[in-house]
Design brief:
Blueprint (H helix, E strand, L loop, with lengths): L8 E2 H4 L5 E10 L2 E4 L1 E2 L13 E3 L2 E2 L2 E5 L2 E5 L11 E6 L1 H25 L3 E7 L4 E6 L8 H13 L5 E6 L4 E5 L6 E2 L14 E7 L4 E8 L10
Parallel strand pairs: 1-4
Antiparallel strand pairs: 2-3, 2-9, 3-8, 5-6, 5-9, 7-8, 10-11, 11-16, 12-13, 13-14, 15-16
This protein binds zinc ion.
Length: 227
């Protein structure tokens, strides 16, 4: 049995291609539950929460609370600590989030490399598009064709992506590809850059001294999730 001080084991890092998991309820507080292990990612680092269900109950909210993840279900869920449950996530949505997330990671690194020093002031990864906001006094549009071309070259090279802990106890993670320094990130990452597909960049005007790059990727089917 797990003790009261242990937090949910986050299997979405170990295997981000997993869409179903059998585990047990760890704690229940009204409509909120925690699990012994999870694959259902909660909003952080700008990557949106997964959609999915726990024991057949739709997850209404997935929320990080320190290192714990709390899932809000319908108030009549009836689950008790120790109950066996299956977690299922909306895998096509998660896969799109991973593709857009990694497209955004690469664009950000390329922006730092070609336009630095430049400050990122926000980022958000949704299932239809990603965006990164910068403090920048010029129109960034002129740089987008070169950035898109450089990003696409990394996709075409189909580089393996390393994702690992820099500090396992503190749950600090990083990713790395060839020719880039390690980048700290607690999101879920693809195995190879080729999975991103065709990237498109657009500039949005979001006010004086700020520039937004909007990132989209082409439509393609998700591969089979791992069992
Ligand atoms: Zn990341």
């Amino acid at each position: 049995m797990r003790s009261g001080t242990e937090v949910t084991r986050k299997l979405f890092w170990q295997d981000p291609y997993r869409a179903r998991l059998e585990t047990r309820v760890a704690s229940v507080a009204g409509d909120q539950v925690t699990l012994q292990e999870t694959i259902l990612y909660a909003l952080s680092g700008g990557q949106e929460s997964d959609h999915g269900s726990i024991g057949g109950h739709p997850v209404l909210e997935a929320r990080k609370d320190g290192r714990e993840i709390r899932y809000r279900l319908d108030p009549g869920h009836g689950l008790e600590p120790g109950d066996a449950v299956a977690i299922e996530i909306d895998w096509p949505r998660r896969y799109r989030l991973m593709r857009l997330h990694f497209a955004a990671e690469i664009v950000l690194e390329l922006v730092y490399r070609s336009l630095g020093p430049i400050r990122k002031i926000g980022a958000h990864i949704a299932a239809d598009k990603a965006r990164i906001d910068f403090e920048w006094s010029e129109n960034i549009a002129a740089h987008l064709p070169a950035l898109a071309q450089a990003a696409q070259a990394i996709v075409e090279a189909d580089r393996p992506i390393t994702s690992a802990y820099s500090d396992e106890a503190a749950e600090r993670r990083y990713w790395q590809i060839a020719d880039f320094d390690p980048v700290p990130c607690g999101g879920t990452h693809l195995k190879r850059t080729g999975e991103i597909g065709r990237i498109e960049l657009k500039r949005r005007n979001i006010g004086k001294g700020k520039e937004r790059i909007e990132i989209t990727v082409d439509e393609r089917a998700a591969p089979a999730a791992s069992a």
